Amino acid sequence: MNAPLETQALFAKLSVGEASVLLGVELVPLLLSDADSQADAVLLEEGIASGQTQVNEVGESGVVGQVRVLHRGGIPLLVLQGEQILGAKQNRSFNSSFLVEPGAEVVLPVSCVEQGRWRHTTRSFVAGSNTLAPEIRARKLKRVNESIRTTGTYDSNQRSVWSDVHDYMEATGTHSATSAFEDARRTRAEETERAMSTLRPLPDQVGLAVVRDGRVVLIDLFGSSRLFARAFQKCLRGALADLPLEPAQSTQAKASAADAVRAALKELGSADTTRVPSPTNSETLSGTSGSVSYAAAVWKGAVYHCAAAG
User: Fold this and answer.
1) Mean pLDDT over all residues of the chain?
2) Is the pLDDT of residue 116 over 90?
3) 22-36, 86-100, 201-215: which range is least confident on average?
4) How many domains does the chain have?
5) Domain around 103
6) Rounded to whole angstroms, how far apart are CA atoms 307 and 21?
């Protein structure tokens, strides 16, 4: 079927800013001048910190691929594809982005990003400060999209996720007793935080694209600049978790990164898309065109978050 109006309209309105290079990662801002955009939600770390939101294991025994989310806030809760939750019986990462309505209690699909621990370190999960590294998120997004297309489920192939985390740990030279992605990420945390201090969200910025060697690896796109500004540090911290390729920092290289993002957005705008009900009252739009795929959380006709992978 043709790309649905919500995402098609959003992709078409975006403009692409000038690329920056941090820790060898090319970062391209996505801009949207749209005063009518009213998309707003509580982010996971905000909900947990304020006591509006709880994330727990499903039952006392727990289920590797699921967590239970209770949200008591006055506006919806937005959880992001690829963001981490830490503690409980094992660290997890959400398989897609979801919008949870006020007062709702839902079971959401996740992947385990830790291996060798199945015991409580905390009763409830805490919000991680980052998303997974872009390459891991991108591969997971494509597997989940295929699962949505073929079975209508949000299966990430847990064995493949563990393999991706294992490869990342080897690449970073990390030893972890529980093979946790978070342990590997923390080995680069100091240099990541220093680099992050040099970049701020732009006034009309609604998204961020990660480009490596001319390829758009991952795009995080939000429905409003206010949402993106609050999620900026989490998304940037995740983006910088990827291992650098030492790309050229010339004007030509930065222009090439921006051009790659423009081409990816054009392709996404014509993606064959599946619309499926999510475990919440929102919907998931899952689309693929050529080498790029995306998944978006949509509620009442508005896109709240879209993750795309090249």
Assistant:
1) 92
2) no
3) 22-36
4) 1
5) 5-309
6) 21
